[in-house]
Amino acid sequence: METKAIQHLYSRVGFGILPNDIPSLSGLKKEDVVAQLFSKSREADPLKIDLAELDDFIDNDSRQKLSRAIRQELRKKSRQKIKDYNSAWISRLVTTDQQLREKMVLFWANVFVCRDNHIFHVQQYNNTLRKHALGHLGDFLKAVAKEPAMSKYLNNRQNVKEKPNENFARELMELFTLGEGHYSEYDIKEAARAFTGWSFRPNGEFFLRQKKHDTGVKVFLGKSGNFDGNAIIDIILQQKQCARFICEKVYRYFVNPRVNQQHLNEMVAVFYPKYNIEKLMEHILLSDWFYEDENIGAKIKSPMELLVGIQRIVPLTFAKEKQLLYLQRTMGQVLLYPPNVAGWKQDRNWIDSNTLLFRMKLPSVLLNDTVINVDQKGDFEDSFEKYYADSRKRARKLDVEKDWTIFDLEFLALNRDEIRESLIRGKIDGDTLIFLDTLTNLDPKEYLVQLMSIPEYQLC
Amino acid sequence: MKRREFIQRSSLASGTLLVPNFLKAVESSVLGGANHKRVVVIQLSGGNDGLNTLIPYTNDIYYRSRPQLAVKSNDLIKITDTLGFHSQLKPLMRLYDKGYLAILNNVGYPNPDRSHFRSTDIWHTASGSDEYLTSGWMGRYIESHGQKPYNAIEIDDSLSLMLKGENMNGIATKNAKLLHNNMNTPYFKKILNQQTDQHLSEHNLGYLYKTMIEARSSAKYIYETSKTNPSKKQYPDNPFGKQLKTTAEFINSRLDTQMYYVSMGGFDTHANQVNTQSRLLHIYSDAVETFVQDLDDNGTLENTLILTFSEFGRRVQENASRGTDHGAANNVFLIGKNLKKPGFFNSGPNLNDLDANNDLKYDIDFRSIYATILSNWLGVEQKSILRTSFDTLDFV
């Protein structure tokens, strides 16, 4: 397999590949390279952080007996732990060998968008994404629908026979499976009835509140029966539109933000009706079109792809978790804190004058100790002082420890062009190329930072 | 159709957002001029308690619902038989007396969302509560009527959804010099000075270069136009005062900017609301009064309309922590010299008729306010920006 193709593959289903990993792959056929990606991602490896001090929070029996003050304290700790989980997730992305699976998790987290402040439920949700990331869409949807975090986020907990709450049913169809215009308001009402009584215990287990569940006949997407939530999901999956909807998201994320209808049709034919996610991904990665020039460097990196991509070459340790959050906020993507149920808009929506400037400065901020003077926005919940707290320490440096070992091993032996090709595969602006050629006196580390600072590095 | 609109539309229609000779276009002179009307939008972020801002001091339900928090009738500035300003709003009272202030009560939208994030999104994008838009109303305005990022400026370091369009965005800065310097580090200079226009047609790569070039020229324009115009007014020494001072400097420099956005934080008063809100209202009204005088002294108040909103109001019933929780409809302030109907635009909230959540119902859809600003104030067609037509109101 060609080096350029391998690099492209790894930048899309992962966060890039290091130069020394290429020779062992370039002798292989595409089929074998792709097979290796899948085999590395075979088993889902749950991401867990230490939550022992919060165990009372999820004990089904003792939880009710906790005093208000203690519960408040637990909630506060829980919010802190979510920030820890955010860091842990990013570390996972930086260090994982399961690039494909973890990239899929990131993808799905922006399809089945969810946000919660209960760390156990957040962790459980995240690992459900991980478990099903390459599985079957039907199992996946049914698991997501039973997750406490989702149940809270889209008010399914409040969805009871006497007074159905349509929020989950609506977003299930509009944002998770079919897209607007492929169901009626009536379908939403009937689907909501089928999900009534779906609830969970403090420890995160799903359970059905029998008395709150509507067992009556529902008419949904032209079918009628005593449907429950699972049956609703099965009927949704019978719609070819569901396959098309998901395939389009996959295409935009992994292939090109501009959709080629012919490729999309091909994907739908593979995905429907079995909805095997692994088979779908395999089809894409084995296709010729995935590697065509028009798809190479066509996508604007998400802040996470940017941040993790840099760290896979130069791993960083943030002394202050807050600063890692600051970077995510300023670039507009804080993991576990999506803006709303529609998720991040991605591609060009990551970019405006301010974020682009910041993104291009990021490599020198992280790797060269450049001062940053961009304040983050305060939170809605902040006091007046806290809201503006940031603005008092205008210029600051990040407290990060840089580990150049990988870079030294992987890049020192390379010449300029090889370093460049390893980092950037898409077209490089001619004038910028000329500029890069003038950078002859830089040491390799400085050259790396300069390369990461050109607009082309924003693409993958 | 104006020539500028025509050019804008035809270029959109042909699908070539990246016109050749792009650099020349960027460097070319600024259209529009000093006569342009502008709007300044201030968000009281966190959800200001409107009921304790404009107090229905004769209402029994108000006093019954808020045994700890209600403002006593002898501790406020009475303006009508039923409503009074919070005592910290004296500066606002003076604007009211001059006829510079209009108060719109019960502003909201159908099926209100009580999440800060979501409700702010709704206000920023001018969407319904059941739709998720990717662009803000100011962003869409500059997309169809402006040309440059600086046509809409947020006084902050990062850009909010309100100023994001589909293919073009506003720009955020609270310090024009700093932004300008950031864009002119030796490295950026080198990269950008190298640029000829031949590669800008590449899809996303062209977009990045275009954004950078525009950002740089916007930063330069804002800085160079405003640097010679430091405000002579003494603003209150706090970050919000500073934001408004910067806004005034931009406006008084006659920047070709039709929309400004300033967000003031701290209003999420779930606990111990009384002192917190007093202080915030003081900071707000004090700074706003100075701002208005500053504009008036410089002859720019005439063409400026200042809108103050919160993403939601707060619950009528106080909570157990001497605070209030997230509510729904709220009051909105409009400040300007050309108000058609200064004072109270409509009557205060009806506490006898609350929604299912026991929150205030809305009488005025906030999108009608946007529609009015767009059609009656800025003189542009509202539909292309708001996507549907809303009734306009008779305030400007």
Helix coverage percent of chain A: 40-55%
Could you tell me the radius of gyration of chain B in angstroms? 22 Å
Low-confidence stretches of chain B: 1-35
Largest interface: A-B, 61 and 64 residues
What series of H and E elements makes up the topology of chain A? HHHHHHHHHHEEEEHHHHHEHHHEHHHH
Oligomeric assembly = heterodimer
Q: Are there runs of chain A of 5+ residues with pLDDT below 50, and where? A: none
Quote the average pLDDT of chain B. Answer: 89
Work out the radius of gyration of chain A: 24 Å
Distance between the termini of chain B: 23 Å
CATH superfamily of the largest domain in chain B: Alkaline Phosphatase, subunit A
Number of strands of chain B: 12
How far apart the termini of chain A lie comes to: 19 Å
Strand % of chain A is under 5%
Total individual domains of chain B: 2
Highest CATH level, the class of the largest domain in chain B = Alpha Beta
Main-sheet strand order of chain A equals 1-2
Helix content of chain B: 25-40%
Describe the overall structure.
The complex is a heterodimer of chains A (460) and B (396). With 460 residues, chain A is mostly helical. In chain A, the strands form three sheets. In chain A, strands 1-2 form a two-stranded antiparallel ribbon. Chain A is globular. Chain B is α/β, with parallel strands linked by helices and 396 residues long. Chain B has two domains: 32 residues, no CATH class; 305 residues, Alkaline Phosphatase, subunit A, CATH 3.40.720.10. In chain B, 37% of the residues lie in helices and 13% in strands. Chain B has 13 helices and twelve strands. In chain B, strands 1, 5, 6, 7, 8, 9, 10, 11 and 12 form a nine-stranded mixed sheet that branches. Chain B has a three-stranded antiparallel sheet with strand order 2-4-3, with no helix packed on it. In chain B, strand 3 and strand 4 form a beta hairpin. The N terminus of chain B is likely disordered. Chains A and B meet through helix 17, helix 18 and helix 21 of A and helix 5, strand 7, helix 7, helix 8 and helix 9 of B.
